[in-house]
Specification:
This protein is α/β, with parallel strands linked by helices. The protein has two domains: about 15-55 and about 195-329, Rossmann fold (3-Layer(aba) Sandwich); about 55-170, no CATH class. The chain is built from nine helices and 16 strands. It has helices spanning about 40-50, 110-125, 140-150, 175-190, 215-225, 240-245, 260-265, 285-295, 315-329; strands at about 5-10, 15-20, 50-55, 60-70, 70-75, 80, 95-100, 130-135, 160-170, 200-205, 230-235, 250-255, 270-275, 295-300, 305, 310. Strands 1, 4, 5, 6, 7, 8 and 9 form a seven-stranded mixed β-sheet that branches. Helix 2 links the parallel strand 7 (about 95-100) and strand 8.
């Protein structure tokens, strides 16, 4: 990218960062055995346990005479891969004068990354006054709801010749990412204003993503509801009802997954998030955006179940809730 771009525009500089400790009971980290296929266990553990670090700068790379073909951008000898697409050879490329790419490698595959990364990329394009160009990404009712709420409709482009294309390097949760989160959070608050409640929420994962489930979820839900939690099911709870509840959430408990991204724009920055983590596909990506927004983050690591799912000790869940509650106080 550095060699292919005719202009490199620094939008936000590199910055030092500090992180509040990830809250968990003793012995939880030792249970972790693996990470998602796109990452490594070492990377996820480093992200989960670090207390300081460096946020990379946000950069706009300006390129001339670009070809977008089946999910990759070509400029000279550079190929910028976003996703693998294959379509009928008869599809003719469209001619585009100028645009900014608002699709990311993970955002075209996962709802959570699309909501966090690609929706904020769109704001960078808007700020530069450039029309957005996107690839086919996640589908579903929630995607369409957010596109309408944020006024971010974008028809996917499959093949194009583009005279001037901007590609953003925007991988870290720096101050500029926080500012864009807050702009979209303001949109949510305008539609779903705070009501002064302090709600406790269990956010139930649907079955339409990567297959993972909690074998003793009924037991966990029973214990939580007896202690004042309400259950929001991302598969069945209406979108407006879900966000209207999350805007007053003091604490959210949920299984790790893309569905937690609903909290990014809805839950207050004074709240806490407790993630139930599968031991063999541990992901620390929730810690990045929670730290960016000032939300306290905690976890309980489960154990493999008997039927292909996971089990979480209800006593450990309760004790970790107490730990998070004390931190919030």
């Amino acid at each position: 990218m550095e060699a292919a771009a005719y202009r490199r525009e620094m939008i936000a500089p590199e910055e030092q960062a500090s992180f509040s400790p990830l809250l968990c009971l003793e012995g939880q980290i030792e249970r972790i055995t693996g990470a998602p296929g796109e990452s490594t266990l070492a990377q996820e553990l480093e992200t989960a346990t670090r207390l300081s670090g460096v946020h990379a700068p946000t950069i706009a790379y300006h390129l001339k005479d670009v070809a977008l073909i089946d999910g990759s951008v070509y400029s000279g000898t550079m190929r910028f891969f976003v996703r693998q697409l294959k379509y009928d050879e008869q599809i003719e490329p469209v001619e585009i004068e100028q645009a900014a790419l608002v699709s990311s490698y993970y955002g075209v595959k996962y709802f959570g990354h699309w909501l966090r990364d690609d929706c904020t990329l769109r704001l960078l394009a808007d700020d530069l006054g450039l029309p957005p160009i996107c690839l086919p990404g996640p589908t579903g009712l929630h995607v369409e709801h957010y596109k309408a709420l944020f006024d971010q409709s974008c028809a996917p482009t499959f093949r194009a010749r583009i005279k001037h294309l901007v590609i953003f390097s925007d991988y870290h949760h720096n101050r500029l990412r926080r500012e864009r989160y807050e702009r979209l959070r303001a949109v949510v608050r305008a539609r779903f204003p705070h009501k002064g409640r302090r709600t406790l929420v269990y956010l139930k994962r649907g079955r339409d993503g990567a297959q993972r489930w909690i074998e003793n979820e009924t037991e966990i839900i029973d214990g939580l509801t007896r202690n004042g939690f309400v259950v929001l099911d991302t598969a069945t709870t209406p979108f407006d009802e879900m966000l209207d509840t999350l805007v007053d959430a003091q604490m959210v408990v949920s299984l790790e997954g893309s569905h937690i991204a609903h909290c990014v724009y809805a839950m207050p920055s004074s709240g806490g998030l407790l993630v139930l983590q599968p031991p063999d596909r541990f992901s620390a990506n929730q810690r990045q955006w929670t730290a960016c927004l000032g939300i306290r983050s905690a976890m309980v690591v489960g154990m493999p179940g008997q039927f292909g799912g996971y089990r979480f000790d209800t006593n450990e869940v309760r004790r970790t809730i107490d730990l998070l509650d004390r931190a919030l106080a």
